[in-house]
């Protein structure tokens, strides 16, 4: 065991910060998931009017001054809030941390659309006079902006990357961070995923043109993954960022450990711009399991990606059954049913929403699952009410995105006797 604890290739989560439509820290988020509290509300957006969205309500000025917020972006603001919360939660002696040995790795679905739409709208009020265009536009819209804003705020001088991985991006942030820690490029990684998507009308308009934008009289019932009465995607904003460290470093400072990243994988469908491919999803899950040296029956919770689109739900259901059909004790749930699709933040939020199961032994439900689609009605699916588990030690987290990018992350409970947060 001593040799295993000294293995620098083992990567652990030591701090958590998040902003979700139904919670601004992990405890509040978890209580909302267990209590069935949705974060989806009516939302007004330019040119389209009323839509449904998962909207965050965190304190933007807890870690930023108003001038800094005006200069930056919503994605940057979410990132700064979550990153500061994660650093504070980690117990790191931040004033004495070598900032050149800290890396920032944030996944995002898209970036720059919000600012570009805003600027075009502004110049439209002045007969498209481009002299009215903001000089802040370029730093706001460069792809590295959210991670870069974190480095400015926390005075981090190590590397930073914003990773464009569509809706697989939350997992991708953690995967990149784990790899950089294993390569000894950094000693601490600030990693996860963020989304400001609700602030661009274009994403709503595009989903609407596809017939994939959710409409419902009751916002809290709009997001209905796996349900025969599904009505499409609810767009959400949010962020989920963790501090990651090599296990020996975390143990040396007596850090509290939320869990260990033991397996991960990414692959590509190479088959369609939008439509998912169950076969590639199966390959991605099996690759992550193989890298973790684990079997399907070792998983206790599988966090599904399902977005409440018909083909997406059905393809993932096929993939899940291909991997887990012979393992009835695995609990499959879905977090989007509570908050909508937080795009680049989705995978990170969904993983963290399940991590407290290591302590309470409960798989949170998939809500709004009133009439299961027969193509998605498999027994492992946790429907409407939380499910107590006989064992809660391992989570497999699915996140899939457009252009056929797939990601899977496996997180395992860390023993309390060695510093695990959950007994």
How would you describe this structure to a colleague?
It is built from 15 helices and 15 strands. By secondary structure, the chain is α/β, with parallel strands linked by helices. It folds into 2 domains: 2-252, Peroxisomal Thiolase, Chain A, domain 1 (3-Layer(aba) Sandwich); 264-413, Thiolase/Chalcone synthase (Peroxisomal Thiolase, Chain A, domain 1, 3-Layer(aba) Sandwich), CATH 3.40.47. A 10-stranded mixed sheet has the order 5-4-6-8-1-9-15-14-10-11, sandwiched between helices. α4 crosses α7 and α11 (278-291) packs across α12.
Query: Which value, in Å, is the CA radius of gyration?
Result: 20 Å
CATH fold field value of the largest domain: Peroxisomal Thiolase, Chain A, domain 1
* Outline type: globular
Report how far the terminal alpha carbons are from each other.
Answer: 18 Å
Major sheet characteristics: 10 strands, mixed
The second-level CATH architecture of the largest domain is: 3-Layer(aba) Sandwich
The secondary-structure class comes to alpha/beta
Strands side by side in the biggest sheet: 5-4-6-8-1-9-15-14-10-11
Number of strands: 15
Number of helices: 15
The named CATH superfamily of the largest domain = Thiolase/Chalcone synthase
Portion of residues within helices? 25-40%
Number of domains: 2
Mean pLDDT: 97
């Amino acid at each position: 065991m001593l040799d295993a604890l000294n293995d620098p290739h083992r990567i652990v989560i030591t701090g958590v910060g998040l902003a979700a439509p139904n919670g601004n820290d992990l405890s509040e988020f978890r209580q909302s998931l267990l209590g069935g509290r949705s974060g989806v509300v009516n939302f007004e957006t330019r040119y389209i009017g009323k839509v449904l969205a998962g909207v965050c309500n965190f304190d933007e000025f807890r870690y930023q001054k108003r001038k800094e917020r005006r200069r930056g972006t919503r994605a940057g603001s979410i990132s700064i809030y979550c990153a500061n919360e994660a650093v504070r939660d980690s117990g790191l002696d931040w004033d004495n941390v070598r900032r050149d040995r800290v890396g920032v790795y944030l996944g995002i679905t898209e970036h720059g659309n919000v600012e570009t739409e805003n600027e075009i709208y502004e110049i439209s009020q002045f007969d498209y006079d481009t002299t009215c265009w903001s000089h802040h536009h370029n730093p706001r819209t460069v792809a590295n902006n959210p991670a870069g804003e974190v480095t400015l705020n926390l005075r981090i001088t190590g590397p930073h990357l914003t990773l464009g991985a569509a809706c697989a991006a939350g997992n991708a942030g953690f995967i990149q961070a784990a790899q950089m820690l294993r390569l000894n490029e950094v000693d601490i990684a600030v990693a996860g995923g963020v989304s400001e998507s609700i602030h661009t009308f274009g994403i709503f308009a595009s989903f609407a043109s596809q017939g994939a934008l959710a409409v419902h009289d009751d916002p809290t019932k709009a997001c209905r993954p796996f349900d025969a009465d599904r009505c499409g995607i609810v767009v959400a904003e949010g962020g989920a960022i963790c501090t990651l460290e090599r296990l020996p470093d975390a143990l040396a400072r007596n850090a509290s450990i939320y869990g260990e990243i033991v397996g991960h994988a990414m692959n590509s469908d190479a088959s369609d711009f939008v439509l998912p491919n169950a076969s590639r999803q199966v390959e991605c899950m099996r690759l992550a399991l193989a890298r973790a040296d684990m079997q399907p029956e070792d998983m206790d919770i599988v966090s599904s990606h399902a977005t409440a689109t018909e083909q997406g739900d059905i393809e993932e259901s096929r993939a899940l059954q291909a991997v887990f059909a012979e393992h009835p004790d695995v609990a499959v749930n879905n977090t989007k049913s509570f908050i909508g699709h937080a795009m680049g933040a989705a995978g990170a939020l969904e993983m963290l929403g399940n991590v407290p199961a290591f302590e309470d032994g409960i798989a949170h439900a998939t809500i709004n699952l009133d009439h299961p689609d027969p193509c998605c009605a498999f027994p492992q699916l946790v429907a409407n009410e939380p499910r107590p588990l006989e064992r809660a030690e391992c989570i497999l987290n699915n996140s899939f995105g457009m252009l056929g990018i797939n990601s899977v992350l496996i997180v395992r409970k860390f023993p309390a006797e060695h510093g695990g947060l959950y007994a």
